[in-house]
Structures are given as structure tokens and as C-alpha cells.
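lol forgot to send this yesterday, sorry. C-alpha cells for the thing we talked abt
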């Protein structure tokens, strides 16, 4: 297991270095002048030349890449051309809101996907309506689901708020659900949960179907296996057979799909955050793109890529824990 983990961590480091190289090359061949954008259009040629020298932009490309990687190791992603702040500081402010949204969405997707798979594989009575409704919702694009949810749950029913997080994040973690709960502010926790529920549901619907379909197919295949019939012949209940034998032997493909969907959720969060005015990196990226704030765009890309790679390492480890034969 240790050797497997070291192999996966080594591969993850290589992938992160490749991603950083791609980002660096794109940053280098960008037609925009970051120094002029940072100093302003009225900056003199002498000040631009001095700033380029100070930033090391006149150095050879390999030297600049080494400095770039060195800065990444020390947590330096450059200065945002739009906010005039370090990109790391901006991400520290915006990333917790996105991580909280995606985490809750991912948990909802896992729950809905598991219900979709188990109810379909075991032919639960009345579950066809649930699965059909979920499939119908998954056919709609996220922006349409978001707008429909706002019209229904905010404008018509008044059950859920339409925008924002409900409060400013001023706790140690930046996660409102955690900070308000640890401080005992249950009223603010309830408000944060209400603001989070609708965007989280919108973000979770499509991944839930993807995970549920793979998990259902795997469950149905395992339920036809000989060892399941043997367990049933010994008098084990359907629930005992499912929890002790079937799920563990079926969960591998679903874990792989869950890792992929987690990455897709971070990619799709941009649209959801804009519609719900969610103060996360999706909104930060949407504001940085029109002004060609490449340091901010590169920083977000690197952070999201690293999260995606790390998530897949975790999924690989969980697969080996579920099925040790994969470590052979």
C-alpha cells in the first residue's frame, strides 16, 4: 500500500509540474504586456523597462520558468492586474466559498447517486418516479436549472434565497457552515445553509446521474455473481448481502466516476456562482477574464488543476482500500 501511495504521489507531482509548464508557456506567449497592464497605460517607457527588469521578464525562458516554479513552491502566484493584490491573497478570500459549495454539492451528488443506483438495482417500489425526475432534471443545463430554481423556490414559494452566502466569512476556516457552528451562532448557520442549498442542488444534479448510472450497472452485475447467490442461500437478508458483499465489490467504477465528476464540478462552478452571486473563485475568474488578468487566471487554473489531481489520487487510494487486488 505504501509503495502504491508513493507511486501515485510521484505521478501527481509530475502532472502538477506539467500543468505549471503549460500555464507558464501560455503566460509567456500571451500577447498582452503584464507590466504595462500593471503600471497603467500612461506609464513611461523607462518605468516599464525598469519594472520588467525587476520582475525578471528579460531573463531567458528556462531561467524564468525556474523562478516561476520556485515562486509556486513558496506560494507566490504573482500579482493580480485587476485587484493589485497578490493572487494568493485573492484566492485565500475567494477559494473557501467555492470549496464549501463544491463539497456540499459533492455530498448531495453522492447521496442522490447512491439512491438512484440502489433503488434501480433492487427495484424499489415507487422509485421509478424519483429516478425519472432526476433524469429529467439532469437533461437541463446548469444555468437553466439555476434560473428555474430561483423562479420556483425564491420568487414563487419564498422558501430559499436567490443570491449570496447570507453573511460575510470572518471565521478561521472561511467556511460559513463550520465557523458559525463552532461559534454556536445557529441562526447564522441556518441562513448560510439556506443560501447554500439551491446552488448546491443545481451543481449536484448532473454528477449524481453520472455516478448513479455507473454504480447501478456495477451493482446489477455484482448481484448476478455466484458469491451473492451463495450468501443468499445461507439465509442472509437482502440488506446484509448488499452492505457486506455487493457494495464493496461494486464501488470501484463509481469511485472513478466520482473523481471525474468532482473535477467537472469545479469547472462548472463558474456559471452557478455568477447566477447566484456566490463570492467564490468562479466569480473571481469571471471578473478576471474580460480584463486579461493572466496572473489571476493562471493561479486559478493551477489551483483547480491541483485539486483535481489530488482528488483522483484520493479516489485511487479508496479503490485499493475497497479492492486490494488493484494493488497487485
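and heres what i got for the seq, position by position
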Amino acid at each position: 500500500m505504501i509503495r502504491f501511495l508513493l507511486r501515485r504521489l510521484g505521478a501527481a507531482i509530475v502532472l502538477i509540474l506539467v500543468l505549471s509548464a503549460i500555464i507558464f508557456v501560455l503566460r509567456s506567449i500571451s500577447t498582452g504586456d503584464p507590466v504595462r497592464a500593471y503600471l497603467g497605460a500612461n506609464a513611461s517607457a523607462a518605468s516599464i523597462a525598469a519594472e520588467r527588469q525587476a520582475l525578471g521578464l528579460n531573463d531567458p525562458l528556462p531561467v524564468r520558468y525556474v523562478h516561476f516554479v520556485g515562486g509556486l513552491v513558496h506560494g507566490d502566484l504573482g500579482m493580480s492586474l485587476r485587484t493589485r493584490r497578490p493572487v494568493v491573497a485573492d484566492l485565500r478570500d475567494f477559494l473557501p466559498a467555492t470549496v464549501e459549495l463544491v463539497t456540499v454539492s459533492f455530498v448531495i451528488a453522492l447521496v442522490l447517486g447512491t439512491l438512484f443506483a440502489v433503488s434501480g438495482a433492487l427495484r424499489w417500489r415507487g422509485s421509478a418516479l424519483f429516478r425519472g425526475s432526476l433524469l429529467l432534471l439532469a437533461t437541463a443545463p446548469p444555468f437553466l436549472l439555476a434560473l428555474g430554481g430561483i423562479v420556483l423556490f425564491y420568487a414563487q414559494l419564498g422558501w430559499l434565497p436567490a443570491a449570496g452566502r447570507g453573511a460575510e466569512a470572518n471565521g478561521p476556516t472561511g467556511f460559513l457552515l463550520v465557523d458559525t457552528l463552532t461559534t454556536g451562532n445557529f441562526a447564522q448557520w441556518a441562513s448560510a445553509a439556506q443560501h447554500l442549498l439551491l446552488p448546491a442542488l443545481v451543481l449536484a444534479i448532473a454528477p449524481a446521474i453520472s455516478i448513479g448510472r455507473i454504480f447501478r450497472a456495477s451493482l446489477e452485475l455484482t448481484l448476478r455473481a455466484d458469491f451473492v447467490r451463495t450468501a443468499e442461500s445461507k439465509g442472509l437478508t437482502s440488506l446484509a448481502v448488499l452492505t457486506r458483499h455487493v457494495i464493496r465489490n461494486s464501488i470501484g467504477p463509481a469511485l472513478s466516476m466520482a473523481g471525474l465528476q468532482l473535477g467537472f464540478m469545479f469547472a462548472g462552478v463558474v456559471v452557478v456562482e455568477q447566477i447566484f452571486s456566490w463570492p467564490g473563485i468562479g466569480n473571481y475568474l469571471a471578473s478576471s477574464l474580460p480584463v486579461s488578468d493572466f496572473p489571476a487566471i493562471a493561479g486559478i487554473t493551477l489551483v483547480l488543476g491541483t485539486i483535481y489531481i489530488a482528488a483522483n489520487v484520493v479516489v485511487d487510494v479508496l479503490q485499493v482500500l475497497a479492492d486490494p487486488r488493484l494493488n497487485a
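The radius of gyration is 24 Å. anyway ping me if u want another try
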